[in-house]
Design brief:
- The protein is an all-alpha fold and 140 residues long.
- It has a single domain, classed as Orthogonal Bundle (Helix Hairpins).
- The protein is built from two helices and no strands.
- The two termini are 13 Å apart.
């Protein structure tokens, strides 16, 4: 009987260690999720700033085009310069699309992390229930 109780005690210690490890892992996940959310907020803020600067750039580009139309008859290479600007604008649009895709992927990653946390909480509950049942058996 003592051997059985020692085995139960050993298993309880093992379960306690596992629960402690799960709790530590959960805390680390929550901490990393917080850090990730802060970085996502920073990213979104920078994306907002980028979009504002893009609007400013587009406004300045519009002003530039008006001035260029006034001098288009006398300036050589106008078409070449305009092509360069359009290429730069295309690059800006491509970067914006990539940032949007990154944001979507980041949100999907957050969903995966949330699901993992929910799973860990579920497993912790199951472990707690098993510990309770073992304690209850031990008390009998």
């Amino acid at each position: 009987m003592e051997q059985v109780l020692n085995q139960i005690l050993t298993e309880l210690k093992g379960l306690n260690n596992k629960v402690d490890n799960l709790e530590k892992g959960q805390e680390q996940l929550i901490e990393k999720q917080g850090q990730f959310e802060k970085k996502l907020d920073q990213f979104e803020k920078k994306q907002g700033q980028f979009e504002k600067k893009l609007d400013q750039f587009e406004n300045k580009l519009g002003q530039f085009e008006k001035k260029q139309e006034q001098f288009a008859k006398t300036q050589e290479g106008f078409a070449e310069r305009l092509d360069r600007i359009e290429k730069k604008l295309d690059a800006v649009y491509e970067q914006t699309a990539e940032l949007t895709e990154f944001r979507t992927e980041t949100r999907e990653s957050l969903n995966v992390i949330n699901n993992s946390i929910r799973f860990l909480l579920h497993k912790e509950t199951e472990n707690e229930r098993e510990i309770f049942l073992l304690k209850e058996k031990k008390a009998k």
